[in-house]
Please model this.
Amino acid sequence: MSSVDPSQLGGTTAQAASTYSRYIQWGLILGGLYFFGPGVSIFQYGAYAILFFLGMLFYQQDGMLYACSHPSIPKRASQNPPTFRTPGERGMEYRTLNINTPDGCVLHGWLMTVPGGSVQSKKAPTIVYFHGNAGNLGLRLPLYEEFYFRLGCNVVAFDYRGYGDSTGKPNEVGLQLDALALRQYIHRELTQFIDTEKIILFGRSLGGSVATWLASQKFVKGDGGGGGGGSGGSGDSGASSTYSNSSGDAGILGLVIENTFSSIGDLALKLFGLLKFFQFLLPVLLKSKWLAKEDIKHVNVPIMLLSAQLDLLVPPKQMTTLFQNAPDDNELTRIHRFYLGGHNDTPIKETEKYYKAFINYFKDLGLVSVPVPRPNTTTATNTAGGSSTGSTDAAAIVAARTLSAKVGADNAKKAAELAKID
Model:
């Protein structure tokens, strides 16, 4: 019997066709399930859920990132419990600041100066504090108190646009304008109270990204707006000349960041695992980028990074990335890792190590840190708006715990814990 070529019987073609038909068959089955069968609840709803997630992320991201009106957190410092309303309640001398931005917003802030008038306050370092993504500046008063008394520092604190008593709506460009306006205001309006060559920027979480961005920007007097109200002066723009002295071309002497993400994209991938499948969409999806890992490359002052190893919100490795990206030609840049601290409670869990890091950093920068005696009763004067009288530290703890019970989350818990620091 003669052999027959399989191709003559359609063998090879049929085999290929059989394979192809299986693809068609499974395609029809899956398509049928998608459009007509019970699989509609799996495939269509799954697709709808993904689209809904991406849509919500796009439209709601500003509300999640800039939680300036959280329903459980007091909007303004005046609405906080006692001892969380003004620095005067905690025995700190202060004045109210009103800072105008180039685009018409007015930022509310405080300048807390160590006792002894301008002679003493100009000897002290000044910490400019950039807070996190939620709550008002009053909720950070326990931290300012430690900087003021324990470290002997002046403190400048403010609320971003849309937060507290500051006007406007927060977004990345807006917060950058706020930072520029604040720096300009400090150098133009506060020179009679502080030495502007002893300015340290300090940012926590989101505030670390804002502070890092500002530190990467060269300072030119007259740029960035920031004129107007407050107790500092007339608000004239002054001469436009390049700032150049020992505080560097950014108008600052140092930068401290604590538990800050490397970028919004990196943080989003950590918080929302589903985004790993849509990384190619991140440039379009994310309105705010906050590329701290790139900005830090252009910071020309010594940087101190404070990284909590138990941080469940910002992975510690992102702080390591920032440290690795910092310019390596500055031998004073350093990172401190805290193995007992989380995102908000490092000053509580490792108090001595935390503040010793600041003291050593100041010493390396040539700054003198002299603790300020704590008053028995917290009474101080607001030179911009009369006197303010507060209660004892014990009452502050009770008030903080009351706030914590109402609020929870990032700010109230931190306030309650920080109030316990001696």
Notes: The chain has a mean pLDDT of 79. The chain has two domains: 6-64, 70-263+290-418. Residues 6-64 form one domain. The two ends are 104 Å apart (CA to CA).
